[in-house]
Structure prediction request, 104 residues.
Amino acid sequence: MVEQDLRKLRKKQIIIQNITYVFGIALIGIVLIFIKSLKAFSFMAGAICLISFIIGMITRKRGELIEIIVPSMRPLFDYERDKLGIEIGKSKRDNCLFRRYCRL
Prediction:
């Protein structure tokens, strides 16, 4: 892959991830503002856990979530898989929140 194309895709990746993070935090913040009871808070916490589990299952089977949402990013992730090989799977497993803090 050409260095210039790689930089362009990296910039696009950073922009998409930052927009996604800001949108997610804003959405959770807005919902938290309107929560009036413990029951509603518990329901929202459960919904967030369920959504996170479903996204985890989708990305485990198909690859990066960004790759699924924005197919034009596929060359970047293919390049990373070719460059890192088996190490990319290990790093993704180690970055799992549950495994990072709860070594079983």
Remarks:
- Residues 7 and 76 are 10 Å apart (CA to CA).
- The chain is about 85% helix and 0% strand.
- The mean pLDDT is 76.
